[in-house]
UniProtKB/TrEMBL annotation:
Pfam families: NB-ARC. GO terms for biological process: defense response. One of its GO terms (molecular function) is hydrolase activity. The keyword Mitochondrion does not apply. Residues 39-206 form the NB-ARC domain. It comes from Brassica carinata (Ethiopian mustard). Keywords: Hydrolase, Repeat. This is NB-ARC domain-containing protein. InterPro entries: Disease_R_plants, NB-ARC, P-loop_NTPase. It comes from the Eukaryota.
Length: 236
């Protein structure tokens, strides 16, 4: 139940502007470390996992990274739960291995990443056929479904040289199951960074006003230094 509530609140927070995301305290450190893992200059097709608990800021980090590097790719797409749910609503969710569901997912995926409104495909090799010579950037955020992942990015050979695929999840076993070896863990911020996050949310400043310092430290500890909790408490 706590996880569901956290995800619901997080979805609402993601409606904030990209500028707000750029101001996420500590974002530059995360981007720098992820850039090392991504090795954007390498010609290989590389899959990277972005892993951490719910509410720790994975999606915020992913969206900022996506905005910054997408211009280096021929095509790019940020796949979230809403993207996949549209297909799940059309087909019987009980049959996760449905051929037509996978076909529909691939059709929507190709239409989005190629910027074409009405793509016709009639088999599940279409992704490889259409993208094998294209350098693309793919983010898959917060949807831990092996069938869906296999349907969209089942093989690195489907994509052109230099392509990058980033899978964002709170389940490390999900990454291992798909053979993703390069994983960046988003850890809890230090107490100093957590206090700064709380101050940014509550006071729009990096430090607490005089007389509030002890209270801010107590609240940061109460939130367990979790960025989602710090944002919610600071905004309330």
């Amino acid at each position: 139940m706590i996880e569901v509530i956290a995800n619901d609140v997080l979805d609402k927070l993601l409606l904030t502007s990209s500028k707000d995301s750029e101001n996420f305290v500590g974002i530059e450190d995360h981007i720098a470390e992820l850039s090392v893992l991504l090795q954007l200059d390498a010609e290989e097709v590389r899959m990277v996992g972005l892993w951490g608990s719910s509410g720790i800021g994975k999606t915020t980090i992913a969206r900022v990274l996506f905005q910054r590097i997408s211009r280096h790719f021929r095509g790019s797409i940020f796949i979230d739960r809403a993207f996949v749910s549209q297909t799940m609503e059309i087909f019987n969710a009980a049959n996760r291995d449905d051929y037509n569901m996978k076909l529909h997912l691939q059709r929507n995926f190709l239409s989005e990443i190629l910027g074409k409104g009405d793509i016709k495909i009639n088999h599940l090799n279409a992704v490889g056929e259409r993208l094998k010579n294209q350098k693309v950037l793919i983010f898959i955020d917060d949807f831990d479904d092996q069938v869906v992942l296999d349907a969209l990015v089942g093989q690195t050979q489907w994509f052109g040289s230099g392509s990058r695929i980033i899978v964002v999840t709170n389940d490390k076993h999900f990454l291992r199951a798909h053979g993703i070896e390069h994983v960046y863990e988003v850890c809890l911020p230090s107490e100093d960074v957590a206090v700064e996050m709380l101050c940014q949310s509550a006071f729009w400043k990096n430090a607490a006003p005089e007389g509030f310092k002890e209270l801010v430290v107590k609240v940061a500890r109460l939130a367990g230094r979790l960025p989602l909790g710090l944002n919610v408490l600071g905004s309330s």
